[in-house]
Amino acid sequence: MVDRVLIFDTTLRDGEQSPGASMNIEEKLRIARQLERLKVDVIEAGFPIASAGDFESVKEVAHLVRDCCIAGLARARLEDIDRAWEALSQAADPRIHTFIATSPIHRRHKLGMDQDQVLEAAVAAVRHAVRYTSNVEWSAEDAGRTELDFLSRIVQAVIRAGAKTVNIPDTVGYTLPEEFGARIHYLMEHVDNIHQATISVHCHNDLGLAVANSLAAVAHGARQVECTINGLGERAGNAALEEVVMALRTRHDHPPFQSLETRIDTTEIIRTSKLVSAVTGFPVQPNKAIVGANAFAHESGIHQDGVLKEVTTYEIMTPESVGLATNRMVLGKHSGRHAFKDRLREMGYELDDQQLDRAFHRFKGLADMKQEMFDEDIRALVDDEVIREDDYYRLERLHVASGTQDTPMAAVAIQAGGESLLEATGSGVGPVDAVFQAIHKLIPEAATTRLNLYQVHAVTGGMDAQAVVTVRLEQGGRLIQGQGADYDTMVASARAFINALNKLAHRKNLPHKGV
Ligand code: KIV
Ligand code: ZN
């Protein structure tokens, strides 16, 4: 008998709580569509009462996605639950996810409530939610540090009140795998109605144990894992979806996992990882498991020799199984619009005519400069074009002069709202500084920010590789990321800076939010 482990993706909710990872509605919709392609079971689309932007994005995701359950988060408050339902009601399969903290430390210092008051609030929240839908999930925030007898008591009560999924989060990433597995085992043994609900886990990665803890929980009967793409999330992040899924698949021989499977189409993993990285501006570290650039690279001569003789000597999964196409040359400067469009379709992009025109124009420019064009080049270019589609400020022209004897100078022209062309020059200690100084003169939002991180990486090998630049800006304690790609690193830098400033301009009117 095969048992399903449900994959609950919270990239759009907990993932978005990573400092600097906030996304606008269009970006969330793009990710939601890709998560549907990846075949996650549940998409947690946001926290509707947190802000008007969150409400709208949950509503639009609920409207768009038909093949996944869509969850919206709500505290144990009636108004939160009402608002969540308002956002979710058009979903094909809506879920209200309500939570309250249960640990002594949270009860005392955060809620000022005792055990009975917390239990009463949790039961009232679930009872209210089941009036809207039978698909109700309840979470015990900081369950990892909650007394086991109280945890059992409250889990039993919320199941009796109608919760169909009960989530046991390790909110602060404190537990060890053996301990966390034992916690799930205890609940399985001591809660008499436990089999009337699916047990879920939600592990944070503060000690780097989120995936290990999630797997330990699955070994003891959890059948839903909450996770995020690239392990994004509050502080050190959540369990990485790609690691949980590939561990269950690759170690299918391991007794607790033998009869388990997920619904995930693993060949969509790399594409999803790249999209999330491009949208949030959070680069994936090269040695990151499953999705890092080096995850399938064999460097040492001994390893290369082994892989050439028999691939399983050093590879426990195939690159194809996660959707990693071997870098092959696909299109060149003589390729036409039609071939370009076909290739994009094969790569999973559906662009409208205008987007296609812009992407093709840039493709032609790149193909003139670059001898070999790989899938990775096309992906970087198209993602870059789509990312800045709704940007108010767009780079129109850039000229940079620098050298060993000269003060670096930059001349920048920016389109503002497609109406006026703004122009300025700047000088700096280096060419990037000169470009950013010029942009500072044109975009007022820049004055209130501080550059916190500047990073470049090459999309492929070769001297003519495209550069992807990531910048992180800080404004009053908030972090905003921006990304830009181009074969000219200065152009990519300008695009990244302008992209981050666009996000600031876009967010000016949205209230601050948080769980
Ligand atoms: O980490 C946590 O406890 C959460 C809950 C809201 C599920 O994110
Ligand atoms: Zn969390």
**Major sheet details:** 8 strands, parallel, barrel
Class from secondary-structure proportions: alpha/beta
Number of domains: 4
Question: Ligands in the structure?
Answer: 3-methyl-2-oxobutanoic acid, zinc ion
Low-confidence stretches: 509-515
Q: Compute the average pLDDT.
A: 92
How much strand?
15-25%
- CATH structural architecture of the largest domain: Alpha-Beta Barrel
Helix amount: 25-40%
Mind telling me the CATH superfamily name of the largest domain? Aldolase class I
Which oligomeric form is depicted?
single chain
C-alpha end-to-end distance = 39 Å
Give an account of the 3D structure.
The protein has 515 residues and is of the alpha/beta class. The chain folds into four domains: 3-280, Alpha-Beta Barrel (TIM Barrel), CATH 3.20.20; 297-323, no CATH class; 325-387; 393-506, Alpha-isopropylmalate synthase LeuA, regulatory domain (Double Stranded RNA Binding Domain), CATH 3.30.160. Helix content is 39%, strand content 21%. It is built from 16 helices and 18 strands. It is globular and about 75 Å long. The two termini are 39 Å apart. 47% of the residues are buried. 3-methyl-2-oxobutanoic acid binds next to strand 6 and strand 7.
Q: What would you say about this model in short?
A:
This protein is α/β, with parallel strands linked by helices and 515 residues long. The protein has 16 helices and 18 strands.
